Fold this protein.
Amino acid sequence: AELMGAVNCVVLRDGKYIGENTDGKGFLKSLNTVVSPAGKSIVILGAGGAARAIAVELALENASEIIIVNRDESRALSLVNLLNSKTNCKSEFHPWAKAYEVPKHVDILVNATSIGMAPDLDAKINIEVSSFRPELVVADVIVNPPMTNLLKDAQKAGCQIIDGLGMVINQAVLGIKYWTGEEVDPAIMRNRLLEVL
């Protein structure tokens, strides 16, 4: 949480309040069900709070490269500079002024923007879908809908996909564990979420 500069969960430990951030940890747990980020080249779309938390966790898990794609250069460079100065991961900024083409060497693409989230279901990310390859893993942090336009396009291209439900469920599992010490069943949470979405 300190490295990310954000707290989303406060825990009382040994009489002291400790700030935690479950965003990146929740995403990482979801990603690890498909692929480990260690040694991988990763593109993150967006540079907001979720992108920051995810990027830091991926860097700490030994991702080899993280490319931040964003319209706001100053926000993206702030994240790039953090990763380059505080982790062993190489990071760079790519401007997002036109349809983004995923570089051929990239292993994982993460959408950490809200583009395509309900109620704006018709919104599409400005990306060259033709640059998707079957060996690319595509993850989206959006929960509603679980199957975003980005994930539909990636699935059509033969990519492995990861929806945003895993991240939010893993965040909840971590939060409950921090607050109560209890382990909860993520499968029950996922099934209930799917019922209401």
